[in-house]
Design brief:
Strand content: under 5%
Radius of gyration: 65 Å
Number of strands: 0
Distance between the termini: 141 Å
Structural class: mainly alpha
Helix content: over 70%
Amino acid sequence: MPGLSGRMSTVVKAKISKLLDRAEDPAETLEYSYQKQIELLQNVKKGIADVVTSKKRLQLQEEKLQQQVVKLDTQARQALAAGNEELARMALERKNTVQTELQGLDTQIAQLEDQQQKLTDNEAKLRTKIEQFRSKKEVIKAQYSAAEAQVRISEAATGVGEEMADIGLAMQRATDKVESMRARADAVQELEAAGTFEDLTTLGPGEDDIDRQLRQLSSSTVVDSELAKMKAELGVGSSSPVGELGAGSEGGSAGAAPAPAPAAAEEEASGGADASEPGARQ
């Protein structure tokens, strides 16, 4: 299905482009471009050096050929003066061949000089462009840094940045946890005050509120029963007179003397007080 494959390719390219946009740093891109231009300038300079080297070699060869032309011309003159025309002809033929080579070298040297001049001009233009790019690069980097700082300051001030958003979420979670712990502490205190929780530190089986109330009621009943029993044994009652307490004691013990009357008891008490006064006064 070409339509589906083309669509998948487009989606993948779009995703990759988006990832590259996020990962791309303009400052790093500018620095990389500047380094590539510097490398290109170095290659141009190397090319110029190679051309000059080749031209120097051809010029050295040209000097040798020129010396050879002079030598052959001299030899031809000497042979002709000696009457050896054939030898003079051979020297002149070699001279013509060397001169032809010299003409070819002159053409090659002229071409190399022309190429050297072009490379030199291009190198100068490229150096100027690189200097301009370097200045512009620094300006763009400074502008980008300033814009990035401004964005961060604005995001920090408004709280819309990713870091500030994370900090805000962390603070919100901390606040929620604090409120939750406060609510839990209040609930525990309320349930503890209501007696819902058992005291796990006590020995024996745990008791709830109803068990405690029943135990307290049973304990109070036992205490009331013992108190009533003691009152019955001692003949003490809230509604019985003093004479009845004595009568009750008669029935309870054999051979006991009857209790004195109230008047007699008062007289005995006053008499005893009178009898003791002289001694107290002495």
